[in-house]
Amino acid sequence: MMKIISTITEINKTLRPYREAETSVGFVPTMGALHRGHLELMKKARDENDILAVSIFVNPIQFNNKEDLIKYPRDIDRDITLLEEIQCDVLFNPSSDEMYPEPVTEIYDFGSLERVMEGAFRPGHFNGVAVVVKRLFDILKPSRAYFGEKDFQQLAVINKLVEQKDLPVEIVPCPTIREPDGLAMSSRNARLTEDERKVAPFIYQSLKLAKKNIPHMTPEEVKFRLKNQFADQPEFRLEYFEIADDKELHAVSNWENKNGIRGFIAAYLGKVRLIDNIRFI
Ligand code: AMP
Fold it and tell me: Could you tell me the pTM of the whole model?
């Protein structure tokens, strides 16, 4: 039976025997409204560890936009059913007061990583992510934690956090799970209207088309073309399209790079902000 826990005291009580027995804990932090993307991370975590712990916490301090926080989809009863089906052992579902009994004062410095793309358009977002992930790691003390490449920049920030604070946890990246038409799965997809949902796969298609232009075009030319394609799609408002290396996320000016190179998009479709990225090289 899955244990559903909302306090830190109770987590410590529940996990103590596992820790003493050196049982490995696989951990998947989420904001709920679970979909197949989340479930794939969880299955991997379950298969690679003795027990699976999942958190559901809609973290207020990582939302720079109040409406996005209010409208964020929530469906805890359905989430619990899905978690029981995949045999999750522990669900940590704390309140904001439990996570943040005092005002949050930590300030992280991830250098340019937090100033580009999502960092540039969502001020304070990654600090809020780092604060909550660090606290969740301190509370659950997982052996391994699983993160999706869908949020590639977040994954890079978490890797940096673990390195900077020398945290005893292994970060496991997991590939992006997509709908059959290519749309990256996201809790926010539930907020799209029927018409918006139909055109939403354009984001992934445009990334794949951009990739086809390599190496005939320079990154600058690829960007120019994709931006023009978005300009022809009135439903979308492209926030950024960047081509960057996959470690520091620095924009590249050619295709020669010792790291991999990826294309990253953020776009509004109606009122919903969607992100996606794929590997270019
Ligand atoms: P969220 O609930 O949006 O905070 O996501 C929780 C975790 O699930 C994060 O590590 C996300 O990167 C991951 N995730 C969300 N959507 C997908 C997806 N379509 N494919 C793979 N991982 C995902």
Answer: 0.98
